[in-house]
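Hey, quick one: can you model this chain's 3D structure?
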Amino acid sequence: MNKASLAIAVLTLLVAGQLAAETIEGLTLHTQKLGERGLRLWLGDHATTTAVAALATRDGVVVIDTTDMPKADARFREIIARELGTDDFTYLILTHEHGDHWRGAKVWADCQVVAHERALQGMTSQLDDLPGVIEWTQRHIQEMEGEIATAGSDEEKAVRTENLLAARARLAGLEPGAQPPTPDITFSDRLTLDMGDMSLELSYSGGIHSASDIFVFVPEEGLLFTGDVMADIWYTDQPGCLAGFRVRPGVAHDFPLLLESWASLLARKGEIKDLIPGHWNGDISLEGFERRHGYVKTLWEGIGAAVENGTRLDDLYARFGLQANFPGLVDSPGFSAENHAVSIFEIWREITGAESAAAALARAIDARGTEQAMAEIRAAHASGAGNLYFLEHELNALGYQYLNQQKLDQALAVLELNAELYPASWNVWDSLAEAHMIRGDRDRAVELYQKSIAMNPDNQNGKTMLERLATAGEEIE
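Sure thing. Here's the predicted structure for all 477 residues.
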């Protein structure tokens, strides 16, 4: 595949002329040949939609990922069967657990589903959030409908219209009560599917984008499918799932296995003709893959050695600065100061096994009461003993959790601690002011809001709260 050509225009590579004009849910259908025995399909010219791939083998067709638009998958299946000359579908491989890669799975119900062993847990956990996702999508659609009227150019209007159509199609695929596909075949590190005249080598790549990321290498065709883990080229201004390269917080990691897996693939880079991400609007080069492998390897080994020498977390950010240590990645898609800091923190946490102080504090409050818990957490912070890490935003979130539960004593204690630990943050004083306001201590709330505004004159929330407090009592000087 000529990657550069995609940056200029999305090409329809099948010769059937009617396909160029075909639409599904109002989105233009695109197809792309993958060698002599493969096909890739996606919808749209702007929206970040999933690309579905299919490979024809002696033992049947193997499909890699679905969309989150079942109508699209149904049409994709028809085209694949026609173009590859068979409707014998055997396997559906899921590159990871996210819904935009499996919600169309019912169309492929006759296939055996293959995924990483962590995928089902990740897919199932998304069902708990489904009502909220549906509500958010409905609200977002309404917002987009209003935004189209304010588009400044025909091109901008086209982009907004396509994103609206994609959102509507996704909403139709968010079926309450629908269950994710249960994988028939799972693995932890590596698995090879022998399809007679073609082999598909699946390997672990988890912890960057999701806990269940896998790569799929097809040596006979020279194709490496990389899911949503990485991209170093973006074809649109909305790269979506390919936008960020960072060690994903809150997901399971196995860095030694990931690095071994990536190194094994890179050792065979002479066999790799094309790397194919899970979305159509980005690409990853071999050089980009190598640099990202080097990045994770350097952080994993370097932070491990630094921790053994007693280096504190705060010092790691300076020691492993992005510009100084990875100049070739500074301007590469997916890298930013924020993503880099998250990766450092997550790798440090993995190495040390450190626990969130906010989580430990919440447990201690439940078990031993607020006063005792606060004494313990202050002592742990002062001594540096224990295996706890303190983050301002986590303590702030815990304080608001107690506020929402109307547990004002606990909320005030946690937010007072946060202000004590991070006195240079205007936000901690704003949050503490709100807690005092809710408790009815108007004078203290005014004092703290004024302190927060003095630190951050752009704190509009604080100004609004002061105005409300002023109208509720005497005029504030």
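One thing worth noting: The radius of gyration is 26 Å.
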